[in-house]
Amino acid sequence: MGLFSGTQEDYYTGSEFGGYQFVSIDDLINNFIIAYVGEDKIISKIKRTDVAFHAHRALQELSYDTTRSYKAYEIEVPPSLTMVLPHDYVNYVKMSWRDDAGIERIIYPAIKTSNPSAIVQDADYDYTFDASGNLVLASDSETWTKYKAGTADNTEQHDAPEFDATFGARFGMDPQFSQANGSFYIDDIKSKIHFGSEMTGRIVTLKYISDSVATDGEMKVHKFVEEAVYKHIAHGILATRANVPEYLVARFKKEKFAAKRNAKLRLSNIKLEELTQILRGKSKQIKH
Question: Which helix (H) or strand (E) is 61 found in, with range?
């Protein structure tokens, strides 16, 4: 019996495309119980809630560096020059802004600035406290205020003024500053992205890694990763149960890493024709 439910007409005339290549969390749990749990099987008896817990953990772990569950949000940068991080944000993949031709131009992080908590001081530079004895903090730090008021969007923007005469004409410039697409930095404590002043009004796109367990619709994996999820669940259950032979735990630990490696290779999506086209450019001669 085929696994595809419905008709091809329903698929092509509907709005849910590409769903057949994924396996839902409920199907993963059911398939694992059928294949691994029961008499004369690896796991004799287990609660469904225990399997569900390890299945959720498997989806989280595999989404970070194997399935790479990417999402993308596009916004117009407001005058506040900030963007709230998505609720399921784990790490960013790429930040870019869209030009008039619809091309995404990469924005690079400003690693030499931040938004620290600014302590309010009195005229004698002593710390101030509220009625409960807690430190009084300013809404914005001076570092962030200066950063968003500046125009640091050109080459070597953090250099001293004495180098202005040689602006753009020096050898050995730092590549991380050798661009004019703008800059940003992420405040993980306040869960905000801060942009430079040159980004005001631009359309920016944040591509980030999700944890894959925020909503029921997200809790699914590609069929290339299905076996890795089963091995991850099996190892998690066996490693946390009493009276399980150590060789069995070690065996499934090896199988878990092997299945994860195979999933990465399957999802790598390297095309020989595309790679060949890129390598053709390596034969160009560079004049000195």
Answer: helix 48-65
260 occurs within a structural domain:
yes
pLDDT of residue 240: 92
Q: Which of 185-194, 231-240, 265-274 has the lowest mean pLDDT?
A: 265-274
Average pLDDT, the chain: 84
- 110 shares a domain with 63: no
Asked if 54 and 45 count as a contact pair (C-beta separation under 8 A), the reply is no
Summarize the confidence of residues 267-276 as an average pLDDT.
Answer: 84
Write out the residue range of the structural domain in which residue 119 sits: 70-210
d(CA 89, CA 71) in angstroms, rounded, equals 9
> pLDDT by residue (tens digit) across 164-177?
555 555 556 666 66
In a domain, 168, yes or no: yes
- In angstroms, the CA 226 to CA 59 distance is 10
Asked if 168 and 87 sit in the same domain, the reply is yes
Please count the structural domains in the chain: 2
Q: Is residue 6, in this structure, part of any structural domain at all?
A: no
The C-alpha angle with vertex 122 and arms to 116 and 125, in degrees rounded to 5, equals 70
Contact criterion met (CB below 8 Å) for 194 and 184: yes
3-state helix, strand, coil in the chain (%, to 5): 40, 20, 40
How many C-beta neighbours within 10 Å does residue 256 have?
22
Residue 8 domain flag = no
CA 217/CA 222 separation, integer angstroms: 13
Q: What is the mean pLDDT of residues 22-41?
A: 92
Q: Tens of pLDDT along 213-244?
A: 887 778 888 889 999 999 999 999 999 999 89
Q: Give the domain-ending residue among 210, 228, 247.
A: 210
Burial label, 62 (beta-carbon count in 10 A; 0-12, 13-18, 19+): buried
Tokens of 206: 């944040």
